Amino acid sequence: MRLRLILVLIFLSCGGPSEPLSPEEKKLKQGQALYRTLCTSCHNIDPAREGSIGPAVADASLELLTAKVLQGTYPPGYKPARPTNMMTRIALTEDDLKALAAFLQKK
Ligand code: HEC
């Protein structure tokens, strides 16, 4: 009787029958959550499309994201999608930027 209870508890603490998320899936989810929270006021919820204010940002590299999001600049030689400088700077960690890059580069 007691053994069965313990087995049930072990089963529940493993999160039930669904597979736990892999590190890659966790990163994608983190990137998606950051994008939806911080970026979609201007960029489209679908990063491959133009937003109400910001351009499409699908495929953005980590280098581009780091320059644009942290400093409002672009990597050397990069041709910006827009000539404006309207985007606010957002103080994100390297980890957050990597998660955003993973999400935006997702096929
Ligand atoms: C206040 C509106 C606004 C917010 C919020 C915003 N952006 Fe932008 N973003 C823009 C605009 C407008 C541009 C076009 C250049 C400019 O005017 O700064 C841009 C340009 C970019 C570019 C450069 C695209 C290119 O190829 O030239 C990237 C990458 C980008 N945004 C990513 C992000 C990410 C990631 C977030 C969230 C962390 C974000 N932006 C939040 C408005 C915004």
Secondary structure layout:
Elements: H1 2-13, H2 23-38, H3 62-71, H4 94-104
Bound molecules: heme C.
Residues 38-39, 41-43, 53-55, 57, 60, 64-65, 68-69, 80-82, 84-88, 90, 100 line the site of heme C (HEC).
Strand content: under 5%
CATH architecture type:
Orthogonal Bundle
Protein structure class = mainly alpha
Q: Name the ligand types.
A: heme C
CATH domain class name: Mainly Alpha
Please count the beta strands (DSSP E, at least 2 residues each): 0
Fold-level CATH name: Cytochrome Bc1 Complex, Chain D, domain 2
Count of discrete alpha- or pi-helical segments spanning 4 or more residues: 4
Helix content: 40-55%
Distance between the termini: 49 Å
CATH superfamily: Cytochrome c-like domain
Mean pLDDT: 91
Radius of gyration over alpha carbons?
19 Å
Structure description:
The protein has 107 residues and is an all-alpha fold. The protein has a single domain, classed as Cytochrome Bc1 Complex, Chain D, domain 2, CATH 1.10.760.10. Helix content is 46%, strand content 0%. The protein contains four helices and no strands. It binds heme C. Heme C binds next to helix 3.
